[in-house]
Task: inverse folding
């Protein structure tokens, strides 16, 4: 077997080249139909390119799910000022590991996606903001980009079209918040990666003060396929509100964790049970975090009927986010994991906004105390109230991202908390 | 398209110019929306999150410092949601902010203390030990207490945007973040860094000079004008026990914005200098004896009237008020033929502009009223250290007046040949030995008056200290003499003298004492440049 | 399906039943030699900056490094934007970012020293003090954590004989905790200098360390 994550029921669009070293070369990628998407875009023009992506219904894969074609259409049409496409390859949402796969196995898929996006928004320069830790995959992308430059696919007069598109790999240095679009812009400009107040929105005032669009790796990687085959073709998969296929990152307590590509709307339990081989060691499902750590935790019951599309997960009380399905069996210590998440968000808070800077750190300490058996029931009320105060009160949503797992875990797994509190009380009494 | 928008804030309709923030719009109604990171002299990062208000139709509370007022908006600064959010933010601050108000210099004027008192929870819920950073000497006059810092970054933005001298930064991130300099390199040598202490909303940045010196509530605040250079930054004298404890800038967008320079700020001890002249005296050398004001002025008046027609020489001062200088000129004019009216004043080699607020410059002239003295007919003499230039005055054999110049470079022979020598000063001088009258006058801090700054702006200052002994404002002493000699009414207030000054000096035409108010007014441009 | 441990091709000792080599997975042959001058300007800011060889006294921005830095400068509209690539380059050479390094970089780019310090301390990948030849960063975030990352971290500490964040007496190893490394399907993920070691279990730790000892002179 060349590649571990394979299941016969997959719909492989983005993941077709995964596990095949040949796909890293221009020739290999072209043999898989590569660079036909950008060729068609150049042929039909910018407006039609945006229209095609609009027609596909592609939604941003970075977590927010904003329609990509619509986002592109916000960019000013004039070319008086430089426009920038920023590719967000700062993948760091806990539970998410899809972008690195795209980069290290199919670098040209990303390069082509960046070409399509840059062309559509009139950007002559695309920055790919790569997570600092991705040294190895970044080097794969670097060699691929050099080859693309060599072959006239990137740079001046790409593919003889008269269009210039430059690309620069920009490597970060360790900050989760740089995955937030305005934090990414701050970081790209050489500053602390602190998010900025919107408005102004990036399409008006983005990187270096210029109109900018920021798209996730997986989003951009999907666009060459959409251009090549048409928006309608893409809509054959998924649901009306969530068209297309998606890479599902499954981690945690399953026999075969990994990246699997399915149409949106795929049933969660089928993914866990059939595709990933179910939960090992005879344990039962306890909880799932369906969209990376920044979304509400689902109980096993919530998962039964849940389909993995934006509206489906929302109906089940959580969010699809970037479709990072973290599976937890009944041995999982929920309080410990929520405390670990809180520690993460406190560690990654940029520190600008008071509710986030103070709230994430405070919540972490309360959770640690509960975990150590020194908590009280009042602490749970305090945690919920802190979480509410961290929701919708800050520049970006980092603190909201911690509030959701805290609130949902206390709602759904209150007994886990109470058990620790009572055990602590007993120890204290003795 | 109109240039204004009309919106409703807390049930009151208000019309403001387009581009006005909700925070400002509320201010016009007298409503203060609590804020920390926002400062009117700096950009607003909207990060403290305490100025969030409810805007009907918006999904979330909006930061009022950066949300622009729009037509028809309905805003609630005091709705349950906004209040709850503020209470939450305040509680977040207090998770780590020490309750060391009893030993904190900011206590009494602290924005955290005030807001918590107004709207905070009665009891904090945090049971965790507080974060400890300790204190850090930032160099210059600035001390940083990291534990008290609310991370509003006003100080960092001041140094970046206004001083354009980026010596402060946020170091680390999240709850480990603190403000710091580049390791051992601090604020020493910076020219405007003292302003970061003023704009710190809490006691994180404090003045070393002021450290533990006085409690905020014990200080009296007097609107004044910085006397340390000819920029005339608007300031407040903060006084206690009849001593100036510190100088603070007072906003005036025409002069100094919200700022003042470190040189001006640091130079206040001279206002508290002991050893003052307290009682009038008459008689030369060994015959010097104390007299009361009444007899001093009566005798002086008689002598002046008797000697009318003599040649008069006058030494004034660029630290004296317009009123004193004008009254001095008037007295001298009544006394005889004025052959010389001079003043000496120190000059610095350089000017120090504030790059982000270019109107504010620490000027060459290190005295407040060089321009006023010039307009009132006094000529500069002496060198840049305010020495020399009095050779012909020293041996003058007519009438001689000295006001406010301590004559530090002159010896006891000064004025020996004078027919009548009147010395008005705050301090005695060896060169006053030959004076027939030594009259104690007040310093600017002890009187009302006005200066003309380098921009040609007339600015009033008010009395912040009680004068020692029976020292009187020079304008009162000289104004009374001038009135007696000229046969008109005696001025009772600085305003009276100013009115006379305006009538006598075309350069000041059109100005009134009341119109000067606490913000001053510009002279007509031809007066300044003509 | 069996409950036997499912092994992903994270590293050479561990490609299990798959016919991919470690070089295939890492793409190391495809990548080949990474030119010190940075290669094409578009990729010049992307070189790995956590290497075995660290010379705290190394001159910055000389020879091919200067050439690379000049290329980097051409890719951004402002000098400030070259700051992070410049700090990366400095760490690649010196192994950590000292106050002296911050000062040199600030002077080079015409930025204030304090600003550079603010930026350098915001990002966790800049070592503010020297670290061992191998900086071992164990992900202990949720996906790895529920699969035993805390135990893997403990094993690394035990087998290197170090405390968290401290460097072993032979100067080879510094073990630290890392946030999610985006390899959640391959728990536990461990970043060692510029490489990932995935699917690392407690039992694998001695073997990984032995391999690193062998590689000390390879320069990864």
Result:
């Amino acid at each position: 077997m060349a590649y571990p994550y394979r299941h016969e029921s997959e719909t492989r669009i983005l993941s077709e080249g995964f596990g095949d070293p040949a796909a890293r070369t221009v020739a290999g990628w072209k043999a898989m139909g590569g660079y036909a998407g950008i060729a068609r875009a150049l042929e039909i023009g910018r407006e039609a390119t945006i229209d095609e992506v609009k027609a596909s219904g592609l939604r941003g894969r970075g977590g927010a799910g904003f329609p990509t074609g619509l986002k592109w259409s916000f960019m000013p049409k004039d070319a008086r000022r430089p426009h920038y496409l920023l590719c967000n390859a700062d993948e760091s949402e806990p539970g998410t590991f899809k972008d690195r796969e795209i980069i290290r196995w199919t670098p040209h898929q990303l390069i082509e996606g960046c070409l399509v996006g840059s062309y559509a928004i009139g950007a002559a320069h695309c920055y790919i903001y790569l997570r600092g830790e991705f040294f190895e995959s970044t080097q794969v992308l670097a060699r691929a980009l050099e080859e693309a430059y060599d072959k006239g696919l990137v740079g001046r007069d790409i593919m003889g079209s008269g269009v210039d598109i430059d690309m620069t790999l920009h490597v970060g240095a360790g900050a989760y918040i740089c995955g937030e679009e305005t934090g990414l812009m701050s970081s790209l400009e050489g500053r602390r990666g602190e998010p900025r107040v919107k408005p102004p929105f990036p399409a008006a005032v983005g990187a270096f003060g210029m109109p900018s669009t920021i798209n996730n790796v997986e989003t951009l990687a999907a666009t060459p396929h959409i251009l090549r085959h048409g928006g309608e073709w893409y809509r054959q998969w998924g649901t009306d509100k969530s068209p297309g296929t998606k890479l599902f990152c499954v981690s945690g307590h399953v026999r075969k964790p990994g990246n699997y590509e399915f149409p949106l709307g795929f049933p969660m339990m089928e993914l866990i049970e059939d595709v990933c081989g179910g939960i090992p060691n005879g344990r039962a499902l306890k909880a799932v975090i369906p969209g990376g750590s920044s979304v509400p935790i689902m109980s096993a019951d919530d998962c039964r009927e849940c389909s993995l599309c934006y509206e489906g997960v929302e109906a089940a009380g959580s969010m699809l986010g970037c479709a990072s399905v973290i599976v937890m069996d009944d041995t999982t210590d929920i309080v410990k994991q929520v405390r670990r998440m809180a520690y993460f968000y406190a560690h990654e808070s940029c520190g600008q906004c008071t509710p986030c800077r103070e709230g994430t750190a405070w919540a972490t300490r309360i959770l640690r105390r509960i975990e150590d058996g020194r908590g009280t029931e009042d602490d749970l009320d305090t945690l919920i109230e802190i979480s509410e105060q961290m929701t919708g009160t800050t520049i970006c949503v980092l603190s909201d991202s911690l509030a959701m797992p805290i609130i949902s875990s206390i709602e759904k797994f209150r007994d886990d908390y109470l058990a620790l509190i009572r055990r602590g009380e007993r120890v204290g009494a003795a | 398209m109109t240039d204004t928008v009309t919106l409703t804030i807390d049930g009151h309709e208000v019309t403001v110019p387009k581009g006005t923030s909700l925070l400002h719009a509320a201010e016009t109604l007298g409503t203060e929306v609590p804020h920390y990171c926002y400062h009117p002299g700096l950009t607003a990062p909207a990060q403290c999150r305490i100025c969030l208000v409810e805007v009907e139709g918006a999904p979330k509370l909006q930061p009022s410092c950066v949300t622009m007022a729009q037509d028809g908006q309905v805003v609630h600064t005091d709705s349950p949601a906004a209040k709850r959010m503020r209470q939450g933010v305040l509680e977040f601050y207090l998770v780590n902010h020490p309750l060391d108000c009893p030993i904190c210099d900011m206590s009494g004027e602290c924005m955290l203390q005030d807001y918590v008192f107004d709207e905070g929870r009665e009891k904090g819920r945090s049971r965790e030990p507080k974060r400890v950073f300790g204190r850090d000497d930032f160099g210059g006059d600035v001390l940083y207490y990291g534990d008290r810092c609310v991370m509003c970054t006003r100080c960092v933005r001041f140094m970046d945007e206004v001083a354009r001298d980026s010596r402060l930064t946020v170091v680390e991130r999240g709850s480990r973040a603190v403000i710091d300099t580049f390791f051992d390199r601090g604020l020493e040598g910076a020219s405007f860094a003292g302003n970061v202490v003023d704009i710190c909303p809490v006691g994180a940045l404090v003045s070393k000079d002021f450290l533990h010196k006085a409690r905020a509530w014990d200080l009296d605040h007097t609107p004044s004008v910085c006397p340390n250079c000819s920029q005339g930054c608007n300031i407040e004298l903060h006084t206690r026990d009849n001593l100036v404890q510190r100088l603070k800038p007072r906003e005036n967008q025409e002069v100094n914005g919200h700022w003042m320079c470190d040189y001006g700020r640091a130079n206040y001890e001279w206002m508290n200098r002991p050893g003052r002249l307290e009682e009038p005296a008459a008689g030369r050398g060994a015959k010097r004896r104390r007299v009361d004001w009444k007899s001093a002025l009566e005798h002086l008046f008689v002598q002046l009237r008797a000697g009318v027609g003599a040649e008069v020489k006058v030494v004034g001062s660029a630290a004296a008020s317009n009123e004193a200088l004008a009254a001095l000129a008037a007295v001298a004019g009544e006394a005889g033929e004025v052959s010389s009216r001079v003043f000496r004043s120190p000059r610095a080699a350089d000017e120090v502009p504030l790059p982000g607020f270019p109107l504010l410059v620490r000027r060459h002239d290190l005295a407040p009223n060089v321009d006023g003295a010039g307009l009132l007919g006094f000529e500069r003499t002496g060198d840049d250290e305010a020495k020399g230039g009095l050779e012909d005055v020293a041996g003058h054999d007519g009438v001689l007046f000295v006001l406010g110049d301590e004559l530090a470079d002159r010896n006891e022979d000064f004025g020996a040949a004078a027919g009548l020598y009147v010395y008005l000063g705050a301090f005695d001088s060896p060169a006053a030995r030959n004076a027939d009258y030594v009259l104690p006058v007040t310093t600017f801090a002890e009187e009302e008056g006005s200066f003309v700054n380098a921009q040609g702006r007339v600015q009033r200052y008010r009395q912040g200290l009680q004068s020692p002994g029976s020292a009187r404002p020079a304008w009162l002493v000289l104004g009374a003499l001038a009135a007696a000699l000229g046969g008109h009414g005696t001025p009772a207030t600085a305003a009276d003298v100013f009115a006379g000054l305006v009538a006598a000096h075309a350069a000041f035409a059109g100005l009134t004492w009341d119109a000067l108010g606490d913000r001053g007014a510009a002279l007509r441009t031809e007066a300044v440049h003509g | 399906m069996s409950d036997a441990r499912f092994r992903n091709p994270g590293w050479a000792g561990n490609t299990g039943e798959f016919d991919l080599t470690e070089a295939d997975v890492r793409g190391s042959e495809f990548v080949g030699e990474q030119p010190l001058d940075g290669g094409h300007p578009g990729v010049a800011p992307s070189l790995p900056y956590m290497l075995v060889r660290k010379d705290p006294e190394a001159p910055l921005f000389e020879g091919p490094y200067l050439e690379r830095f000049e290329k980097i400068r051409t890719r951004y509209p402002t000098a400030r934007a070259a700051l992070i690539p410049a700090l990366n380059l400095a760490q690649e050479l010196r192994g950590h970012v000292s106050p002296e390094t911050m000062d040199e970089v600030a002077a080079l780019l015409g930025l204030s020293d304090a600003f550079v310090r603010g930026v350098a301390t915001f990002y966790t990948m800049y070592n503010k003090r020297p670290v061992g030849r191998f900086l071992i960063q164990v992900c202990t975030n949720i996906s790895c954590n529920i699969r035993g990352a805390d135990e893997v971290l403990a094993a690394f500490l035990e087998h290197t004989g170090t405390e968290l964040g401290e460097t072993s007496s032979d100067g080879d190893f510094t073990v630290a905790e890392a946030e999610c490394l985006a390899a959640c399907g391959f728990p536990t993920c461990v970043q060692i200098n510029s490489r990932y070691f995935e699917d690392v279990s407690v039992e694998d730790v001695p073997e990984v360390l032995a391999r690193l000892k062998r590689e000390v002179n390879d320069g990864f």
In short: Chain C has two domains: 41-122, 134-215. The radius of gyration of chain C is 19 Å. Chain C has nine helices and four strands. Chain C has a mean pLDDT of 91.
